Structures are given as structure tokens and as C-alpha cells.
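Attaching the record inline, Q. Sequence:
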Amino acid sequence: MQAAYRGWIGFGLSLTLGVAGCAGMGAPLESSFNYKNITIADGSAVSGEGNNVLFKGSPLGLSGTAIKTGDALRDVKVAQNDLSLINIAQTKGAGKVRIISVVPSLDTPVCEQQTHHLSERNKGLDKLVELITVSVDTPFAQKRFSQEAKIDNVTFLSDYRGGEFGKTYGLFLSGPHLLARAVMVVDKNNTVRYLQITPELTHLPDMEEAFRIARSLITAS
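Structure, as predicted:
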């Protein structure tokens, strides 16, 4: 119990430092984002109740209904920048390939880099697929982040209202009220064709593999 308690404290402290670091930057981010050497996750965790991911080695339990490759994208409402709700299965990219990047909070360095990678290193995929980022940040915070980071090719959707997206996909961390880190690729028929949940929250998902799968789906169609 003491180890778990220390883990929670460390988790909260890291988030606080991440927020403070972003808030203290002052000037808007330039498009030449300073990518850092962050470990890319090997393999995937399993979503859903009874499973967990790690934060610096300490387990955090997942809540919700598990989803896996081959499942249909599930209906759940998330908030847009204007606070209006939209079904994740019916975003503007419905009917074509979509890449859904899931991050705990945009105000942390790993989440920031994951989102920049999605936006800036997709090698033209953004012209062919819809790029989506989901987090529990408020729509106001997401809008501020996208403006400061000069990211206009990613759809930002918020799960701040109650973590319903996270629970629907088995990606909700109920203790810290955050989402697990993941990336999924959805085909034009709303079938999940690729899913990686990083076993360790401080690691990045393999975005290049997600891009590869998305391209293969476009070619196949």
C-alpha cells in the first residue's frame, strides 16, 4: 500500500510539474517542435476492467469495457472546442480511415510530443485521413494548446465531462481521472484495425506503425 501511495504522489507531482512547465513557456510554440528522445513502447497493454498500465513502474488500474482489434468503433459522446457533443463514431472523418491518438493530458511532455508527431510527421496522411486527439483536458485547454502549438490538422475531442470515452473503450484510469495512452486506427467501416495501449504511461506509442497501417488501409480500398 505504501508503494502504491508513493506512486500516486509521484504521479500527481509529475502532472503538476508538467502543467507548470507548459504554463511557464510564455511564447507560443513554433512549428519546429523540439522532439525529445522518449522511449517508444514495445507491445501493448490490454484494455478494460481488471487490467492495468504502469506509471514509472507502479500499476494503475483500467476501468471500462475492453476493446480490441477487430471490434467496431463504439458510440460515445465527446466534447468539441465549442462544448457541443459529437459521437466519436460520427466525426467529420466518418467513412474514411481515422487515426485516434489518446493521451492523458496535453500539458505533459510525452503527450505534447505524441500530438506533435501525429500532426507533423504523418507525411501527408492528414490529407487522406482524419487525425484525432482525445484527452480529458477541457475543450478550452485543448483549443489553447492547438493554437499555441500551431496545430490545425488534428481534431481535438475532450472526455472531460465524465470519462465516458475512456470507460467505453476500457481506457479510463479512475484514480487520477485520466486516460491511458493509446493509438488506434479505424477503417472506413468503423472497424478498429490497429490498437496499441502503452504498457508504461511515460512511453510513446509507435506512431509510425499506426501511420503504416493507415496507409495500407487506404491502399487496400
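Residues 97 and 129 are 5 Å apart (CA to CA). Residues 1-30 have pLDDT under 50 and may be disordered.

More tomorrow.
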